[in-house]
Amino acid sequence: MHLLQRGPRGAQSRAHEHEWWVAVSEAGASLLSSRPARREAILPAASPTRRPHWLDSERLRLYPAVVLICYLVWVLIYLYKAVWHPHEYISPLAIDFLPFWSSSYLALHGHAADAYNLGVLGNVEQNALAHTVGLLPWLYPPTFLLFVYPLALLPWKIAAATFLGGTYALFVRAIRAIVPRREALLIAMAFPGAALVAVSGQNGLLTASLAALGLVLLRRRPVAAGICFGILCMKPHLAVLFPLALLCSRSWRALASLALTAMSMLAISVLVFGGGTLAAFLHNASMAAGYVESGRAALARVPTMFALAKLAHVPSALAYAAQGLSAILAAAAVCYAWGRETSHALRAATLVCASLMVCPYLFDYDLTWYGVLIAWYGKYALESGWKRGEREWLILLWLTPLAGILIVSHVKVQFMPLISAITLWMLVRRIAQQRREPVVLGRHSGE
């Protein structure tokens, strides 16, 4: 009786159990089928988007514009003092241009060798300025005398404005040739290194432009590039590593063009001005070395390892040893960069940086070359991606030319050559990283 009564309940229980399993199976199938959709909805939200770098295009336009406005205000203040306070003597702008003009004046009057005579040159400078001037010697080889030869056909102030304005425009054009972007125009115009050259009246804009244009032309027009490098030999201490780079890269046409241009300019200058100018140049070069070695030169404005050691009261022998080590490391970096295949932008940046680490007699107005270095480094990073901190380091390089006047002269520690050395190390590390990466066709377009 009990079993007969239990049968219907057991059947009912089994029916409920079957229905329950069907419901669970349907729910499980529904859950499994919905899981991909839910995962697609969740995963993007779980991956945080990278924040854009603070130095965006808007700031790259804004900050240089502000700097240019500051330059304009400074010039207006200077002009106000010069015009409204004529009884108070103010040193003229571009005073270092005066030896260029005075040497041209002597050469035009047939006394080119006297450009190396401090007494004769000083009289011409004093007459042009109508005021006593300090020691402003002519320390360049006859090849540069050939370059400045026509300047004295104009009054010295007009000649200075023409020379500095023309080389400033050439520098901006060279930077745009490396990085053809609108931001590059403002950055080059506001570059403190360029402003320092313009205020000083020096030739740093010209030498930086020749180096930049030669490196731009090297791959497609090697002969024209060699001509640029050959003209650069008018400041031989800046051009010494360029033949080494061309030799390592087997750029034979550019190397031959460099040699032919340099030798032709030297031969023409000796024929035009006489062999005495070459001997006088060598004498003045040794005199300049003596000024730097004795500390009579403004070592705060000399961004070399030699000056770093001398400001630290290191003996001259050890200071020269430190500079020699710097030159060896610079040459080794050039051989490493140019001896094997790598990005042309990194090669160019390495050569520019290394060229500032060879000679013990360098001045802060030569750090206009930092502008060329920044352009080439930036070109590579724009194509291949930025590493952390690189943009901030380039900002430091952009500001460094003013450090000698604003900082080193007060703290008496010459740290500028250390900035060049660290930059060279960064470049070599970048080259090593690129060579370890797999080759991707079209990654470096045009290189």
How would you explain this protein's 3D organization?
One of its GO terms (cellular component) is plasma membrane. This is DUF2029 domain-containing protein. The chain crosses the membrane at residues 60-80, 144-172, 184-217, 223-246, 258-282, 317-338, 345-363, 395-428. InterPro entries: GT87. 71% of the residues lie in helices and 0% in strands. With 447 residues, the protein is mostly helical. The longest helix has 45 residues, at 2-46. It is globular, with a radius of gyration of 32 Å.
Give the helix tally. Answer: 21
Cα end-to-end separation: 98 Å
The coarse overall form would be globular
> How many strand elements?
0
Radius of gyration: 32 Å
**How many domain units?**
1
Order of helices and strands: HHHHHHHHHHHHHHHHHHHHH
List the helices and strands and how they pair.
Blueprint: H1 2-46, H2 57-84, H3 98-108, H4 118-129, H5 142-148, H6 156-178, H7 182-189, H8 192-200, H9 204-217, H10 222-232, H11 236-239, H12 242-248, H13 252-273, H14 276-294, H15 305-311, H16 316-339, H17 344-355, H18 369-384, H19 390-399, H20 403-411, H21 416-436
Helix pairs in contact: 2-7, 3-4, 5-13, 6-7, 6-9, 9-10, 10-13, 12-16, 15-16, 16-17, 16-21, 17-18, 17-21, 18-19
Keyword list:
single chain; disordered N terminus
What's the gist of this structure?
Its main location: membrane. The chain is 71% helix and 0% strand.
